[in-house]
Each structure stands twice: as C-alpha cells, then as structure tokens.
Amino acid sequence: MTDSPIRFGIIGCADIARKVSRAILLAPNATLSAVASRSVDKAANFAKANGFPPEAKIYGSYESLLDDPDIDAVYMPLPTSLHLKWAVLTAQKKKHLLTEKPVALNVAEFDEILKACEENGVQIMDGTMWMHHPRTQKMKEFLDDKERFGQLKTVNSCFSFFTDPDFLKNDIRVKPDLDALGALGDEGWYCIRSILWAADYELPKTATALRGPVLNDAGVILECGASLQWEDGKTATFHCSFLQNLTMNITAIGTYGTLHLTDFVIPYQEHEASYIASAKPGFNDLVTGWTSLPSQHTVTADLPQEVCMVREFAKLVQNIKKNGAKPDKKWATISRKTQLVLDAVKASIGKGFEPVEIVN
C-alpha cells in the first residue's frame, strides 16, 4: 500500500508560487489541497490560473488555511519580513514548512522559527531548488574525489540579473519593509549556499564585504559582494546584483582539479544539466595548448529540480507521519549556516567593510 500524498497548502500568491504549485502537482507524493491569500478572489484566481484540483480549498486569510486539519504542509512564498510571524504560527499549527529563502531577516529570527519547528515536531526546508537536482550530487562526487580534485582551495560564485526601472521601484525585493535584504537575500543566498556546499558546510572564520555595494535610496542592497576566509587557508568570493546581466556561475578550484558551471541556480534546460570538470591539466611541450582537456558532463533529470525538492520534502514529512520519525535536521542546519554568513556580510557592509567573525 502506497503512502498517502502530502497535502500542501500555499499561503500567499507570489510569482514564485506559480512554479512551486506546478512542482507540487508533478511530485508523485504530494498534492495541492488549498491556497490562501488576503482576498478570496485573488486566491481563487491563482488556483484557477495554476491548475489546482477542483477540490482544492480557497481561503481569504492565511489563518483559515492554517486552521484546516486536512493540510499536512505549508509552502510559504511570503516576503521575508513576514516569515517570522507566519512560520512560527505554521509550526504551532503542526504544519510542516517549506519556505522561500532567505528564511529570515537575520539569524535571531531564524532561531525563533527553528525553535517553533522543533517544539512542534515539524519539518522545515528552504526553497533552494538547485540543491535537489541530480547534477548537484554528481558534482559533489567530483569535489570529494581526492585523486582528481584534491583539496578545495577557493570558490567563486556569482548570481546576477538585470532588472528594469519598474522592478527597481516597485518589486518587493527592493522594499525595506518587505525584503530588506535586497539582492543579498534574493541572490546572495544562492551564492553563499553554493560556497558552503563546496566546502562541506564548514563555516568560514570571517566574511568581509567588498567595497562599492550599490544601495537604493531606502538603503536596500541592489548589488554587493564579499570574500570569505577559513582558518585552513581556503577562500571564497561571491557577487550578487540586480543591475547586471543574467549570470549563474560557480567555479570551485582544488589542488588538482576545477569544477565550473554557468547555470547553477536554474539549469538551461529542465531535464538535463551540465558541468565542466578539469583534473590535472597541463600544457603541451611548446605551451601552445592544453593536455588533459576539461570534460563536459551532462546529467539527465526525470523531474525538474523544484519537483525533486518537493518530493524530498514530502518524503521526510511522510516518514514523520507514518513512522513517527524525527524531523531531519540537515536542512535546518544548512539554512542556518547560510543565514549566519549572510548576516556577517551585511554586518561587514555596515561596519565599513571590516572583517566580521562568523560564530556558529
């Protein structure tokens, strides 16, 4: 007998919720059961536009959805400033929580959310989709190969996209009362996560913001970068921007090898994704070309990465519901470390680009 699908409710009708709604519909162990907005009409229109099942419930308030005993899990695409209130309430209502990133405005808020989840025995996961793509596992196998890649030495990560004047004036990601972390929270989260992923989630000792960040008139970050340093000599840099061409790069360099990809956040295609691996290259005798050329590796995916994310989250929830398992702490730990580094970068900007120590 197969497990019953996890019944998802969505609170908020943000644009990203369109993509995750589709992912829930495609996930084999999940189903869309409800959507809530601050108006019934908006929720109803969202459900109709995004192919919700006819039996899905429509709510005109977030509280109504959270009070529904038939909802197992909540996907929360609300602005970051609203996460603390609604994530805590979601946990208190015993609903498992898949939340958009960044999880919170700072680690103090994050810890309040995590405390509520732990006290109520609910699973939490943030919506960093690329972590769940099968390519990510294949790339990690290369990074872990001491013969081919060696010891990690440095990581460079970049996520940027060019936005129009309307975005820079009206998007919630540039509003200090909604998403005060701006590009650092929206794009920098991915960059920091990619660096931590390459470093086996070992926290750097310090973060130093790079000079020249761009802020809007309200003080929200539109573009910034930082360098990270570890006690053993590893280094990393990242750059995020709302003001530059669409770029999604990771380069991880080891003593013997290099990993490089240019679409790490969202693959160029849904059902396959590639990366380039270089192991112990060199030059030919006349130094006119390379020997041991880098190789491109393509990984196919039966399901889009966001569906893989929903499937993994629903699997964890099913294990809790059916087997009485404890929530998996892996995802909360990874999220918290990402939040700690993000906080340190923001603090370094505020302190005139001085190094800020990262304390777990």
UniProtKB/TrEMBL annotation:
InterPro entries: Gfo/Idh/MocA-like_OxRdtase_N (IPR000683), GFO_IDH_MocA-like_dom (IPR055170), NAD(P)-bd_dom_sf (IPR036291). It comes from the Eukaryota. Residues 137-259 form the GFO/IDH/MocA-like oxidoreductase domain. GO terms for molecular function: nucleotide binding. Residues 6-125 form the Gfo/Idh/MocA-like oxidoreductase N-terminal domain. Belongs to the Gfo/Idh/MocA family. This is Gfo/Idh/MocA-like oxidoreductase N-terminal domain-containing protein. It comes from Hibiscus trionum.
